[in-house]
Structure formats: C-alpha cells, structure tokens
Predict the structure.
Amino acid sequence: MIGHTFDRKKLHRRAAIFLTLKLLFFTIIIGRLYKLQVIDSKKYKTLADENRIKLIIHMPERGKIYDENGLILASNKIYYSLKMTPEQIDDLNSVIVKLNSYIDLELEEVDLIKNVYRTYRADIPHIIKRNLDWNEVAKISTNLLNLSGIKIDTESIRYYPKSNKYFHIAGYTSRASKKELRQDNFYSYPGIKLGKSGVELTFEKFLRGFPGNEEVEVNSRGKIIRQLSIKNSIKGSDVYLTLNTKLQEHTISRLGTNIAAAVVIDANNGNIISSVSTPSFNPNVFSQSLSEEEWKKISTAQFSPLLDKTVQGLYPPGSIFKIVIAIAALKYGVINSSEKIFCNGKYKLGTDEFHCWKKNGHGNVNLIKAIAESCDNYFYEISLRLGIEKIYKEAKNLGVGRVYKHFLQQVEGIVPNKSWKEKNFGEPWQKGETLNTGIGQGYVLLTPVEIGIMTSILVNGGKIIRPNIIKGIKEGEDDIKIDNTFKTNNHNLYENKHLNIVKKGMFNVVNTRKGTAWKSRVADEKYIIGGKTGTSQVRKISLEEREKGIIKNKDLPWSKRDHALFIGFAPYDKPKFVTVVVVEHGGSGAKVAAPIGRDLLIASREILLGEKTKLIDNSKEES
C-alpha cells in the first residue's frame, strides 16, 4: 500500500511538472506569435512588401532644342538595350555562355557584365549592351525564359540632326562625373545623362524634366504580377534659340577650313543670330559610351575643336580696339574731331620707340581719318592723354569682362589697369603699356562675342545690351519666363555727336579709297556697310627685323602669323546687324577677315529680311 501511494505521488508530481512545462511552452509560443503579429507586424509587413513590391523609375524625356524657326537642333532617339538585374541571377557564367550563343559578345562586354554583377546595385537593372540590332533583339526575345535576370528595354539617347553645325551652341550630354553625382543624386539613376556644354549645360534644369515612378507587385522570380501605383514622368522643357540655321550654314561655308570664329548679332537687342567656331565636332559621338583613351584623343585634338572660340577664345583685338579709345577720348574731351596729330611712322616715349604699321606714316590725321586708315601714332597719343584707368572704365562700360546670366560658358576678356598688373605680376604699370593697350595689343584679350556687344553699343546709339541666345522656353503649352535682363546704371553713356563721329570713321574704313576695308564695300545705297579692320600681332618684331624689312605673313610659320579681324555693321543709317570675324593666324584683317564679314552682313539681310544687296566687282577696280 505504501509503495502504491509513493508511485502515485511520484506520478502526480511528474504530471504537474509536465503540465507546467507545457503551459510555459505555449505561453512562449503565444507571446512570440503576439510579438510577430501585433508588436512587429509593421516591421515584417515592410520586409514582405520589399520582397513583393518593386519601384520602377521612369526617366523623363529630355526637352528638345530648336532654332528660331522651329528646326530641331537636339532631340531624342530610341534604341534597344540589354539590361541585367544582378539579384535575379544564380549562375552568372551560365548566363554569359547563353548570351554569347545568341549574340556575339566582345571581351570588353563580358568584363562589363562581370563588373556590373560584382559592384552595381543588385536590385535594379543595369545596361550591359547598347544599340541592339533587330536580329539581336529577335534572338534574345525568343530565349528570355532561359535568361534569368536579363531583359530587353528601350533607351533614349541624345541626337543632333545638324551634327557639327551647332556643336558649340547646342553642346552635348554625357554621364555625370563623381563630383556631379555628389552635387545632385538625380544623375545616379541608370542611363541618365546631363548637359556638359553649350545650351545643354546652361539650361540643364529646364531640359532634363522630372522622373516618374511605378510600384509593381512581383513574384519570387521578379516577374511583374500587377501594377500598384504610377506617377508619370514630366518631360523636359523645349528651348528655342535666336539662331537662324540658314545663316549658320552660310557662316560655316564662308569660314571654310580656317581656324576661326564668327558671330552675327542683332545690334539693337543682343540676339545672337549666327555663331560659328571652327573646327567643330560631331556631338553625337558623346551619346555613346566613350573610353578614357577616346576622350583624351578628342580633348587634346589639334586646333581645340571642343573650344567655343566665340565665347572662350581670347584674342588681342588689335586695331578694332581703337574705336574704344576714340569714344573714350571724345567723352573725356582729350581730343575733338578736328584736331590733327602728325604721324611720321614712329612715336617716341622717353628712350622707347613705338611704330605705326605704315612705315613712313600717315602725315596729319584727325580722328575720323585715324579710324579709317588705322593710324597707330594717333592712338598712341590719345591713349597717353587718356591714361589706362579711363580706358579700362570705358571698356567695362562697353561690355568687356562681364559674365552674363543664361549665356553659355563664356570667359571674361581682359582689359588691364594698374591694379590688374599689380595683382597678376606684382609690378607697377608703365606708360608704354598704355600705348600698347591703345592699339589693342599688350595685355588686352577679348572674345568675339564681347567685341560684338562692344561694337553694337557704339553703333546702336549707345543703348546697353547683353548677348542672348534664347528666344523662348516652353513647358508643354506654357511659356516659361526667365530673367534675361541686364541691370545697369550706365544709361546714355555717350553723346550722340560723339557716337556719330566714331560711326563716320567706321563708314570711311569701308567706303573711302584709303580706308583699310575699301575692297569690302557694297554698291547698295540702302545697305551701306561700316566697319573696322584689325591685324593683331602674336610675335615680337625686333629692331633688326624692322630695319631689314618686316617678314610677310605668308613667309612665316602658320603659328607666327598675325590674327585677322573685322567688325562690321549694316545698314549704316540704322544698324540692324553687327558681325565679328576672327581668323586665327589669317594675316591681314583687310584682306582675309573683312570680305568674310561683308558677306555675312549681305547674307543676314537676304536670309532674314528677304532683300538682296547690289555688289561691286573689285576685280575691275584699281587697287
């Protein structure tokens, strides 16, 4: 009896322990389920959604660029690309082998696939091959079931139908650099490119648009089951330029094979009607992937085809700068139109001797004759009377050395003064340097567009203008307003009588027999041309060479020859067009640049106004 009682107690104790353990176990299970389903439900729902829901980014269509008449200069072209999503691939080598059996993969493409798989984000598709042809698309499409993680997609690339004719103005697009990625994560999306130069860069924020996104539910293999939500991308704005393609093409043709820059500007509002820098480059090359070696070859090419010489080329303006000295001298009363200065071909300043381009001199000259015949001695004298600070001030008033909002990637021209020399060389200014500045040599360096604005202000009655290339920006059907105004306190800078004296000198440059551009005149009284030639030295001429005879440009190496320059405007009575022509190492401004400038003014009238100009046959004229 006692044994049976002991066994029963032992059994009851074991049962109680078992029941307690069982209750504890179920308590833990229930607590765990409560934590998972109630406390942590939001966390695990998020994790589940991340595995089930994918966010697809839809890149916006980039805005187009048009000329003033609506001709497309930059658009978008659709092509097929091959994409890979690394996380959906179990056996990369197997995928590569299969792909290679359908399309021929280059060694570089195989390396790219491996690199993408190892280093790129695993959850989004990346381009591994661009520009698939129809045969490649067909072969891969029929075998996609055997290619996990691979898909064919359409991509948009920038396309420039006018090729190199608008390269420097329209610019080009390319992938973002590391620095650009840090500045704006918009460019971190696969395949996105941004403007690198020209209008593409200046108006990037307008052209690029805004990306959209789409939430989709996918299965375990990444296949889309259904769409959950969508936010459409917003197309970039279209940009309309002030440039005229017919005139642009004529300018390119007229410059030919010269290393040169030429612009045509509306003298009354600063609109750029034509802008050409040669040599140029085909921007469509940048729409593809370039190797480092290919980029280096392009960026270091002879004659700098990537450089827009109209806004980034700095040139000594030579005698063109004399019109700045002329208007400054009249403004400050250091000369009048009738006072004559004698030129014998040499100008003495202390122990130094400066020379006029005409060896035996021009004799007695007044301001109008000095402009027409480009007498250096005259401008040496009035520059010295003015002093460098007044020259500097008036050059600034005329637009030199200004950076303009919404106007390409321009560089500032240089007109020196005392503080500039001290800052850059740590030396005091010398009077002889004022003489060199007075004839557009020495430290003076200007861009063709700066020269064009400077000329426009002098011939349009003193109205301050700024360079502009934008006719309008459209976002859908709406016009976008941009602040393109140029704020200045310098109104009525010059008296009309002073401006008319300078204009008369420029009239005589072209329309009198001793004028330096006499052979570039026209016979049309309704479209009389005024202008100024410039021949700027790029080398120092020794005293010994002067005594023996200055070497002619044609006998010098190309890089040692003078630059040829011309500024022109028409019609004389009411100027509408201003042109600037710079031919690098072209020699004589009168012989090389002036005929080109005349032809651009004639073409501007015919193309934009529909009026022809009566010409003079110089072959029948006496030289």
Q: What stands out?
A: The chain is about 35% helix and 20% strand. The mean pLDDT is 87.
